[in-house]
Amino acid sequence: MTFFGVDGVITGTIGPFRIVRLLGEGGMGRVFLGTSPGGRQVAVKVVRPELASDPGFRRRFRGEVEAAMAVSGAFTTPVVDADPEGPLPWLATVYVPGPSLQAEIDARGPMAEPEVRTLGARLAEALVAIHRAGLIHRDLKPSNILLADDGPRVIDFGISRAIEGTALTATGGVIGSAGYMSPEQVAGNELTAASDVFALGAVVTFAATGRPAFGTRKDDPYKWEVLRAPGRLIAKYERELHAFDFPGSDATTVS
């Protein structure tokens, strides 16, 4: 793995991929746009050095990557290559050039009813594929959904669990994003496939209303609303959601 920076431009290679540019970075590491020797575009996520030095993280990352490579749903981003044993572990997925659902709603406002119905059905299909591989996403949110021409793509599945128990959560924090975490996630309890279904409902609510169902802060009022008053959503968004009736859309449908 080599990187070269000239006038702020990052070049070099990661595994077999030539790095084109930095796409973004977050708590787990940096994401680069890369190309394969054959010209295929990929998104390469490189783990932060402090996580790479944690044996527990490496063990979990290795297991999650192996499971993620078995996911082949139409509305997911396949893992095409990875090196969990390298000095800085990395994984590469198919690159999706479309905007995130978050960016799309921020720019254009809520989706129309037919669009929301289609989005919800396709995201549910993505979760089926992820859960069948034995994974739980743990951080399904609008910024982890990319909009391709032929439908949404769920990204970053199979890597959130690797962070558990590292310095990033040592202060009592939980992995997840305010507005989309399930009650058990907020409480710090064990997660199941149903936790992702809760997040799916929150994502669909955001797409239909343009607002996060439970706000965007992990403070006490947020936790109270998620843990004690999820039924308030019906009254809170009654006008926007009155036309959306998804028969059978409960936790058993996706899990």
From TrEMBL:
<feature type="domain" description="Protein kinase">
    <location>
        <begin position="17"/>
        <end position="255"/>
    </location>
</feature>
<feature type="binding site">
    <location>
        <position position="45"/>
    </location>
    <ligand>
        <name>ATP</name>
    </ligand>
</feature>
<dbReference type="InterPro" id="IPR000719">
    <property type="entry name" value="Prot_kinase_dom"/>
</dbReference>
<keyword id="KW-0418">Kinase</keyword>
<dbReference type="GO" id="GO:0005524">
    <property type="term" value="F:ATP binding"/>
</dbReference>
<dbReference type="Pfam" id="PF00069">
    <property type="entry name" value="Pkinase"/>
</dbReference>
<dbReference type="GO" id="GO:0004674">
    <property type="term" value="F:protein serine/threonine kinase activity"/>
</dbReference>
<keyword id="KW-0723">Serine/threonine-protein kinase</keyword>
<keyword id="KW-0067">ATP-binding</keyword>
<keyword id="KW-0547">Nucleotide-binding</keyword>
<dbReference type="InterPro" id="IPR011009">
    <property type="entry name" value="Kinase-like_dom_sf"/>
</dbReference>
<dbReference type="InterPro" id="IPR008271">
    <property type="entry name" value="Ser/Thr_kinase_AS"/>
</dbReference>
<protein>
    <submittedName>
        <fullName>Serine/threonine protein kinase</fullName>
    </submittedName>
</protein>
<keyword id="KW-0808">Transferase</keyword>
<dbReference type="InterPro" id="IPR017441">
    <property type="entry name" value="Protein_kinase_ATP_BS"/>
</dbReference>
